[in-house]
Amino acid sequence: MSFIQLAIIALIQGITEWLPISSSGHVLLAADYFALKGRDELLINAMAHLGTLFAVLLYFWRDVSRAISGGFELIAAPFSKKALSSSAKLATNILASLPFTLIIVVAYEALMPDATKSALRSVWTVAATTIIFGLALWWADAKGAQSRKERDMGVRDAILIGATQAIAAILPGTSRSGITMTTARALGFNRTESARFSMLIGAPLLAAVGAYAFYQLGTETSPEGIATLTDGLIVAGLSFVSGIVSIGALMAILKRMSFLPFVIYRLGLGIGLVVSAPILGLI
User: Fold this and answer.
1) Among 9, 14, 123, 279, whose Cα sits 20 to 30 Å from the Cα of 210?
2) If we measure between CA atoms, which residue out of 6, 58, 47 comes closest to residue 246?
3) CA-wise closest residue to 109 among 50, 170, 31, 163
4) Residue 218, Cβ neighbours under 10 Å: how many?
5) Where in the sequence is the domain holding 132, given as residue range(s)?
6) Predicted model pTM
């Protein structure tokens, strides 16, 4: 693969992973355009996710440290009579957000026929989900005053927000970050808190997705390909840098304005795909 192709895919992954515009949809379109298949797609996918994972861990290192210390507090909780700290509650909410999505994703990978999986990866799916969930984000963001913060979040909230990740895992174009931010906004959380919690619960899921891609890579029955480990490291590095910039930009934007720019972008992209797909031969 050329450096330009690697850079484009890495930058797309890094920029879109944490924005509510769907990294999977964008990367899928780019991979199809560059004809990435089999081992090459698995390698690039795994390394891109690795880069964006480290980006969110670094940017939110204080929250990650709190969650880790809170996890140890939860382990000791049965032997302690102390009330749970805010760190332990954060760890509880992150853990509560994961099981439903993991069960659905495992069942999807194990039971869903390959033909159905391929059909769901079509440009029409990306276009439809981009538009539909873009409108959902607009509704949740504009429906009224929302001022809840992390301290107001209960386990029920975390489960509901986390469960929506299953939709994004199955339908490209949904946007994992977008649908979790949408749910958080609908539950009354403010914009920056919605984005922060979305990214924190995305980290373990992103690690699982990346690990699964590495597993697939190691068990690939037709290992031929043109992408090398060096290519993958380039993708990881560029995804990391662009991911840091993307997170910072999103958090700065949400302190000043609504999600409307992302909604407009999603609607424009979805309509553009519907119009241009037959012309560009994406179907």
Assistant:
1) 123
2) 58
3) 170
4) 9
5) 3-280
6) 0.88
